[in-house]
Amino acid sequence: AQSVAQPEDQVNVAEGNPLTVKCTYSVSGNPYLFWYVQYPNRGLQFLLKYITGDNLVKGSYGFEAEFNKSQTSFHLKKPSALVSDSALYFCAVRDRIGAGSYQLTFGKGTKLSVIP
Amino acid sequence: DTGVSQNPRHKITKRGQNVTFRCDPISEHNRLYWYRQTLGQGPEFLTYFQNEAQLEKSRLLSDRFSAERPKGSFSTLEIQRTEQGDSAMYLCASSLPVTNTEAFFGQGTRLTVV
């Protein structure tokens, strides 16, 4: 079975400061990893994904994430936070093969608040 | 707008009634997914279609739930004899038939059972 843990329910950061939203995962094989963002009353918007290759993945709106296989982590980062980044962020995993290869398993989400 | 479209956006129903939601995926996407999201939780997988074939169903999908994708295009999710515990956001997503691709989500249908 695959699972995702987002250990922080909420992250507060001052505008202009770097931000990190943490994610760890568990999957039987090699993972595909994703970050999505959800604004109030909106669906999920894709930010970035790790498939293979370079462990540092760059995505939309200046976000990036670092895949660490030994720590089974995929933390989301941004060098300088904007107030408009305030939203709910979800990490998700999908196995490459087998029963879990069609479905995304999401974490519970982390609410990011960027303080002006 | 060429994204995933879901209708209705909101639905309030009385307990025991049946409800049906519709999802129109991105046109070239042959994979379609349904997820359910409750307050304070991440989305949970319900079911998956490749073209018109329903290939995977979660144990969350009780006998009261049924999903169809009759012509491999739009999909419907029906809930029979709704219960208060069915209150949630129902999300539809679609993707290309490539294993490493991301899924694109619609804005969801928020169901409230009173």
The largest contact between protein chains, plus residue counts on each side, is:
A-B, 26 and 26 residues
Q: What average pLDDT do the residues of chain A reach? A: 93
Low-confidence stretches of chain B: none
By DSSP, the count of extended strands of chain B is 11
Task: Give the rounded overall mean pLDDT of chain B.
Answer: 94
In short:
The complex is a heterodimer of chains A (116) and B (114). Chain A is mostly beta strands. Chain A has no helices and 12 strands.
Textual characterization of the structure:
The complex is a heterodimer of chains A (116) and B (114). Chain A is an all-beta fold. Chain A contains no helices and 12 strands. In chain A, the strands form 3 sheets. In chain A, strands 2, 5, 6, 10, 11 and 12 form a 6-stranded mixed beta sheet that branches. In chain A, strand 5 and strand 6 (44-50) form a beta hairpin. The N and C termini of chain A lie far apart (41 Å). With 114 residues, chain B is mainly β. Chain B is 0% helix and 49% strand. Chain B has no helices and 11 strands. Chain B has strands spanning 5-7, 10-13, 19-24, 31-37, 44-50, 53-57, 65-68, 75-79, 88-95, 104-105, 109-113. In chain B, the strands form 2 sheets. In chain B, strands 2, 4, 5, 6, 9, 10 and 11 form a 7-stranded mixed beta sheet that branches. Chain B has a 4-stranded antiparallel beta sheet with strand order 1-3-8-7, with no helix packed on it. In chain B, strand 7 (65-68) and strand 8 form a beta hairpin. The mean pLDDT of chain B is 94. The chains are: A mainly beta (116), B mainly beta (114). At the A-B interface, strand 5, strand 6 and strand 11 of A face strand 4, strand 5 and strand 10 of B.
